[in-house]
Amino acid sequence: MNGTIQAPTLEYAQLAPMLVVFGAAIVGVLVEAFAPRYLRSAIHVPITLLSLAGAFALTIWQVVKGVPTKPAAMGAVAVDGPSLFIWGTILVLAFVSVLLINDEDHFVAAAAAVPGSAEEEQALHEGAGHTEVYPLALFAVGGMLLFPASNDLLVMFVALEVMSLPLYLLCGLARRRRLLSQEAAVKYFLLGAFSSAFFLYGTALLYGYAGSIDLAKISAALGVVGGQETLLYIGVAMLGVGLLFKIGAAPFQAWKPDVYQGAPTPITALMASGTLVAAFGALLRVFWVALGGLDWNWSPVLWAVAILTMVVGAILAITQTDIKRMLAYSSIAHGGFLLVGVVATGAAAGQNSKALSAILFYLVAYGFTTVGAFAVVTMVRDAGGEAWHLSRWAGLGKRSPLLAGIFAFFLLAFAGIPLTSGFFGKYAVFQAAVAGGATPLVIVGVVASAVAAFFYVRVIVLMFFSDPAADGPSVVLPSRGTAAVVGVAVLATVFLGVFPQPVLHLAQNAAQSLFIR
Amino acid sequence: MHIVYPVVVSALLFSIGVYGVLARRNAILVLMSVELMLNAVNLNLVAFDVWLRDRLHGGQVLTLFVIVIAAAEIGLGLAIVLAVYRNRQSIDVDRLRDLSETGASEEAGPPEEPVGVGEDADREARP
C-alpha cells in the first residue's frame, strides 16, 4: 500500500458496440419515465433499431480496423475474432427480432391486471401498452453481447444475469393466452435461477482451486496447483451445468419447450436465435480458454451430452402436436449438432479453428432460419390468437400457398436439405468432427438428422396434402415489419445455401485468430 | 481455522438449497431455497478469499456482485409470482401444468384458453 491507486484503463473503442446498446437501453428507461404515453412507442422503436444498427456498424469498423490481440478492460472482456463475429450475428438477429416485437400487439396492455378485469378493459381502452419491452430487449441483447466476450467468470456471471433477467420478464407479457405465458415465465425464472446458482458454485470452487476467476489464470493454474483436483472437477462440472442449461442440452432441456411455447412468439424468436448464439460463444470460451488443458476430462462428458441431446431432441419432436413445441425440440436437436462441433475442438490449433469456424457458420445459418420460422408462426391466427396446434395447420398450402411454401422451405433448411443454409452448416460441423476423430458422434448426428427430417416433412405433408378444415385459421396480412423479417430470413437461407463461401470465409477469418488466451 | 470447515458448511447449505428447490411446491419457498444456494456460494467465496490471501480480494468482490444480483433476481421473481397469483389464486408450482408434456399430447384440439377482454374474433383474425 503506497497510497496511490492506478486508474484502470478502458478501451472504449473496443467496447463501443456494447456501450451503445446499453446506453440506448438506459435512454429507453428514461423515455419510459418522462415521455408521455402516446409518444413512447414512436420514440422507442427508432432508438432501439438505430442503436442496434449503430452497434453493428461499430463492430464492422472494429473488424476493418484490425482485430485486437489483447483483452480489453484490464483483461475482463476479450474482443477477439470469434467475439466480433458473434456480436455481428447477434446484432443482426436482434434487429430482425425487434422488427417482429414492434410489429403487432403481441404484448399485454397491463401486465398487473387480471385478464377480463375492469383494469384491463380500461388499459385497453386507453390504448396502453408495455413499451418497456424495447429497453428490456436491449438490455437482454447487451447481456448477449457481453456473455461470449467475457474473459473472467465474474463478468460472465453478470452478463448471464443481464441477459436472462429481462428475458424472464418478457416471457410473461404475452397478450393472448396469458396463463400459459405467465407459467412459462415462472418456469423459466425458477429453473434459470437454479442453474445460475450452479454456475456460481462452480465459479466459487474454481476460484478456490486457481486463486483467480480470470479464465487465462485458471488455465495457467491447471498444471501448477496440485492436490486439489476435487475442487477443480466439481467446479468444472457445476460450471458446465450452468452453461449447458442456457443452451438447452439434454439433461437440462426441460425448460425449453415450455418456455418457447408460452412466451410471446417474437420473444421466442429472440431467445431461440440470440441466446443460443451467445451461450455457445460463452461455452466455447470457457472450455477452450480456461479448460483447454483439461480436455481429456471434459471431452467424454460432452460426447455423452451431445449424443443425448441429439437423440432426445429428434425423438421427442416426433410426438409433438404443437408447432412452437416442435420448433423448440428442433432447437434442442440443433444444440446437439452444435455440441458435436464443440467436441471437435481438439488440442491442435488448426483443428480448433476449423471446428470453431464450422460452429460460427452453423449459428448464423440456424439463427436466421429460426427467426423466419417463428415470424411465420405469428402470421397464422385463430380467433384466440396464433394457431399453435398442428391440426390447425392442415391444408394451409391450399389456403395460402406462398406462406406455406416459405415455411416448408424453412423446415427443409432445419432438416439440412442441400441448397439450403442448414446443409452447409451441418456439413461443416460434421466434417470438422470427422477430422477431429469424433466419427461415432457424426454417425449418431446423421441418424438424428434423418429422424428429425421425418417430422419436418410430416408438417410439410400436413400443410400441402390434407384438406383444410372448414373453420381453419386465417393468415393475417403481414405488416411491413413481419414481411421484412420473413424476407430477410428467406434471402439469408437461400444465399447461405447457394453461395456459402463469403460467410464461410468470414467465419474462417474470425476463427483463425481463435479466442485470446 | 481450517479451510475444510467453511467449505463443508457451504456444501451442506448448497445441498439444502437444492433439496428445497426440488421438494418444495410453494414458489416463494423455492425462491428462498435458491437464495440459500447463492448464500452458500457467498460463504464459499469469502472463505477461499481469506484462505488464499488474495491480494486483489477477487472473492470478496464477487460476493458483493452476487449479493446485488441476487437482490435484483428476487425482486423480479416476486413480481412474476405475484402476477401468477393474481390470475390463479395459487402459487403451487405443481399445479402449473398447462404447458407440460402430457397436457399437450392428451388434448385433441387446440387448448382452450380464457380470452381477455377486447380480443374479439373480428379484431384479431382479419380475414
Based on CA inertia axes, which overall geometry of chain B fits? Answer: elongated
E-strand count of chain A: 3
Strand order of the largest sheet of chain A: 2-1-3
Average pLDDT over all residues of chain B: 81
Strand and helix layout:
The complex is a heterodimer of chains A (517) and B (127).
Chain A: H1 12-34, H2 37-65, H3 81-103, H4 118-125, H5 133-149, H6 153-171, H7 178-210, H8 215-221, H9 229-247, H10 255-262, H11 265-290, H12 295-318, H13 323-343, H14 349-379, E1 380-382, E2 385-386, H15 396-399, H16 401-415, H17 421-435, H18 439-465, E3 474-475, H19 480-498, H20 501-512
Antiparallel strand pairs in A: 1-2, 1-3
Helix pairs in contact in A: 1-2, 1-5, 2-3, 3-5, 3-11, 3-14, 3-19, 3-20, 5-6, 5-11, 6-7, 6-11, 7-8, 7-9, 7-10, 9-11, 10-11, 10-13, 11-13, 11-14, 12-13, 12-18, 13-14, 13-17, 13-18, 14-16, 14-17, 14-19, 14-20, 16-18, 17-18, 17-19
Chain B: H1 4-23, H2 27-52, H3 58-88, H4 101-106, H5 121-124
Helix pairs in contact in B: 1-2, 2-3
Describe, in plain words, how this protein is organized in 3D.
The complex is a heterodimer of chains A (517) and B (127). Chain A has 517 residues and is an all-alpha fold. Chain A has a domain of 225 residues. A three-stranded antiparallel beta sheet of chain A has the order 2-1-3. The radius of gyration of chain A is 22 Å and the shape is globular. The relative contact order of chain A is 0.10. The mean pLDDT of chain A is 89. By secondary structure, chain B is mainly alpha-helical. Chain B has a single domain, classed as Helix Hairpins, CATH 1.10.287.3510. The longest helix of chain B has 31 residues. Chain B starts with a helix and ends with a helix. The C terminus of chain B is likely disordered. Chains A and B meet through helix 4, helix 6, helix 7 and helix 10 of A and helix 1, helix 2, helix 3 and helix 4 of B.
